[in-house]
C-alpha cells in the first residue's frame, strides 16, 4: 500500500516527526509502562522528568542539521506571521491561555476534602512479608551476610557494585539523596548520610523498604509520591542484603539491633 503524497509530506517533516515522538513518548510512559509485569502507575514528577528528557533529545536531533532545523521552524514561523493562519494563531493563543489558567486554578483552589493522615517517615513494618513468593518474618531478622564475617568485605564490595548500577541516579554518589535525577522527585530520595534515616533502623526494616519500594508503603506512610520501585522485581534477596551492607559501611552508621529480653529471647 502506497502512502498519499500529503501524508508522506507530514511523515517526512521534522516538526511533525518531533511532535509525534513527544506524543508517543507520553503514551508509553503514562499508559505503557504500568502494563509491564511488576510495574505500577508512574508518578507525575517522573512523567515530567522523562518528558523533559525526551524533549531535549528531540530538540538536539532537529537542531544538529541546519536544513532540518530550518524545516522544523517553518510551521511555527508560518503560524506566527502568515495571515492565512490567523485563525490557527488565535486558537493556539486561546488554548495556551486556558491551559495556564486551568493549571493555576488547580494549584490555588480550595477543596472540601478531608485533611490527609499525618505521614510517618518510618512507618511500622509488617511482622511478615512475601519476597518472590517466599514468606519472611521481619521481627528479629538479621542480615544473613553478617553471619559470614570472613566474607564481609567481599559482600560489601558486591553491594557497592549493585548500588552504583541501580541506586546512584536517585540517591547519589555520596548517598545523600542528591543524585542526578533527585531534583525531579518530591519528596527527595532518602539521604542515608542523615542520622534520621538508616541510623535509626534495623537492617530488616531497610530490607523491607528496599524490596517493596513506594508501592509497598502502608497507610500511615501516605500521602507519598515516591518513585522508589519494588526492587524485589529486579534484585535478588542476596543483592539487597549486600546493598544494605554497603549503605552502613559507606555512611559509617551502625544498624539498630533487636533487643534481647531476659532468657535470650528477642
Q: Overview of this structure, please?
A:
The protein is mainly alpha-helical. The chain folds into two domains: 5-108, no CATH class; 128-251, Cytochrome Bc1 Complex, Chain D, domain 2 (Orthogonal Bundle), CATH 1.10.760. Helices cover 48% and strands 3% of the residues. The chain contains nine helices and two strands. It has helices at residues 5-11, 14-32, 44-63, 66-81, 86-108, 152-166, 168-171, 203-212, 237-251; strands at residues 128-131, 134-137. A two-stranded antiparallel ribbon has the order 1-2. Strand 1 and strand 2 (134-137) form a beta hairpin. Helix 2 (14-32) packs antiparallel against helix 3 (44-63), helix 6 (152-166) packs across helix 9 and helix 8 packs across helix 9. The protein starts with a helix and ends in a 15-residue tail after the last helix.
Features:
single chain; 266 residues; mainly alpha; Cytochrome Bc1 Complex, Chain D, domain 2; 2 domains; two-stranded antiparallel ribbon; 3% strand; elongated; disordered C terminus
Question: Which helices and strands occur, and which strands form pairs?
Answer:
Layout: H1 5-11, H2 14-32, H3 44-63, H4 66-81, H5 86-108, E1 128-131, E2 134-137, H6 152-166, H7 168-171, H8 203-212, H9 237-251
Which sequence of SSEs, written as H and E, runs from N to C? HHHHHEEHHHH
Helix content: 40-55%
Q: Helix segment count?
A: 9
Q: Whole-number radius of gyration?
A: 25 Å
User: What is the count of distinct domains?
Assistant: 2
Give the termini separation: 73 Å
Which architecture name of the largest domain does CATH use?
A: Orthogonal Bundle
- Say what the CATH topology of the largest domain is: Cytochrome Bc1 Complex, Chain D, domain 2
β-strand percent reads under 5%
Under CATH at level 1, the class of the largest domain stands as Mainly Alpha
Q: What is the number of E strands?
A: 2
Mean pLDDT figure: 85
The order of strands across the largest sheet is 1-2
Largest pleated sheet? 2 strands, antiparallel
Low-confidence stretches: 261-266
Principal-axes shape call:
elongated
Amino acid at each position: 500500500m502506497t502512502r498519499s503524497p500529503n501524508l508522506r509530506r507530514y511523515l517526512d517533516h521534522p516538526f511533525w516527526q518531533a511532535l509525534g515522538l513527544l506524543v508517543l513518548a507520553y503514551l508509553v510512559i503514562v499508559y505503557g509502562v504500568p502494563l509491564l509485569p511488576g510495574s505500577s502507575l508512574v508518578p507525575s514528577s517522573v512523567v515530567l522528568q522523562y518528558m523533559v528528557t525526551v524533549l531535549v533529545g528531540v530538540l538536539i536531533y532537529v537542531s544538529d542539521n541546519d536544513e532540518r532545523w530550518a524545516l522544523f521552524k517553518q510551521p511555527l514561523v508560518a503560524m506566527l506571521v502568515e495571515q492565512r493562519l490567523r485563525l490557527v494563531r488565535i486558537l493556539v493563543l486561546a488554548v495556551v491561555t486556558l491551559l495556564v489558567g486551568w493549571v493555576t486554578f488547580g494549584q490555588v483552589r480550595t477543596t472540601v476534602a478531608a485533611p490527609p493522615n499525618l505521614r510517618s517517615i518510618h512507618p511500622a513494618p509488617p511482622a511478615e512479608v512475601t519476597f518472590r513468593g517466599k514468606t519472611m518474618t521481619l521481627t528479629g531478622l538479621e542480615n544473613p551476610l553478617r553471619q559470614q564475617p570472613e566474607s564481609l568485605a567481599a559482600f560489601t564490595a558486591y553491594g557497592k557494585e549493585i548500588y552504583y548500577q541501580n541506586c546512584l541516579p536517585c540517591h547519589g554518589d555520596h548517598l545523600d539523596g542528591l543524585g542526578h535525577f533527585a531534583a525531579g522527585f518530591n519528596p527527595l530520595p532518602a539521604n542515608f548520610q542523615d542520622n534520621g534515616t538508616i541510623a535509626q533502623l534495623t537492617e530488616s526494616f531497610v530490607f523491607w523498604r528496599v524490596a517493596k519500594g513506594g508501592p509497598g508503603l502502608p497507610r500511615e506512610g501516605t500521602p507519598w509520591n515516591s518513585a522508589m520501585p519494588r526492587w524485589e522485581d529486579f534484585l535478588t534477596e542476596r543483592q539487597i542484603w549486600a546493598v544494605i551492607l554497603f549503605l552502613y559501611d559507606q555512611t559509617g552508621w551502625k544498624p539498630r539491633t533487636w533487643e534481647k529480653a531476659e532468657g535470650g529471647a528477642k
